[in-house]
Design brief:
Layout lengths: L1 H29 L3 H53 L8 H30 L4 H25 L5 H28 L5
Helix pairs in contact: 1-2, 2-3, 2-5, 3-4, 3-5, 4-5
């Protein structure tokens, strides 16, 4: 529970950084200054670090409890990084990996839901080979989503994102292992 609280602490810190960034960006657009641009770049970088930390601590505690919040946070980070790049603050190249990670988190959440749905279907029809195959496919997609997050983290310029991706990958592998055990428990062996 403590680590999940850490996720929400990071989430709230991100919200405060996001607000400061938006206020500073409005000021910068009204009257551009080099010192304000440098300060905005620092706020953007801190927001990225906080998002990476939130994802790591959330994944280490209970990824499935925080994945919705994490995907929303990363979507908002994508907007922040894009606004910064549009204002000439920071590289445009960082926008795509951030947005891609946000989408991968949404995909991961959907894949986990599909695993649950397929397990429920198998529980209702333990003799159905198609239901058993559906669970296998859903588990494979769940693992593929975790893999995409890990590969995407390799594009990042920080090791913090890689640490977060490894935590997500570990949580995803654990969930896939639990789902496979549930699949084996639920299906009726062929006679």
């Amino acid at each position: 529970m403590h680590e999940t609280a850490d996720f929400f602490d990071c989430y709230h810190r991100f919200q405060r950084l996001e607000e400061v960034f938006r206020l500073g960006l409005a000021e910068h657009r009204a009257a551009p200054r080099a010192d304000l641009a440098a300060a905005l770049a620092e706020v953007r970088d801190e927001a990225i670090r906080v998002a990476e930390t939130a994802l790591r601590v959330g994944a280490e505690a209970d990824l499935w409890q925080v994945v919705d919040g994490a995907s929303g946070l990363w979507a908002r980070l994508g907007e922040l990084v894009a606004e910064a790049a549009d204002a000439g603050i920071g590289p445009l190249a960082e926008v795509r990996p951030v947005r891609r990670l946000a989408q991968h988190l949404v995909d991961l959440q959907q894949a986990a839901a599909t695993v649950d749905e397929q397990l429920a279907e198998l529980g209702a029809h333990p003799d159905d080979h198609a239901a058993d195959a559906g669970v296998k496919v859903a588990i494979a997609e769940l693992l593929a989503c975790g893999d995409r997050i890990a590969v995407g983290a390799l594009e990042a310029s920080t090791t913090h994102r890689l640490d977060a991706a490894v935590a997500v990958l570990t949580a995803t592998a654990a969930a896939a292992g639990r789902a496979e055990r549930d699949r084996l428990r639920l299906r009726r062996p062929a006679t």
